[in-house]
Amino acid sequence: MDSRALGILEFHLIKEMVGEFAISEMGRERIREQDVATSRETILAEYELVREMMDAVSWRETIPMDGLYEVRPYLEAIRPPGSYLGPPDYLRVNRLLRTTAAVKRFFHSYRDDFPGLHRLMEGCESVPEFEKAVESALTPEGEVSSGATPELAEIRRGMAALSRKIEATFEKMIRSPEIRDFLQEGYVTERKGRRVLPVRSDLRFHVPGIVHDVSISGGTVFVEPMAVVGLSNELTDLA
Question: Would the CA dihedral through 37, 41, 43, 46 be positive or negative?
Answer without folding.
Answer: negative
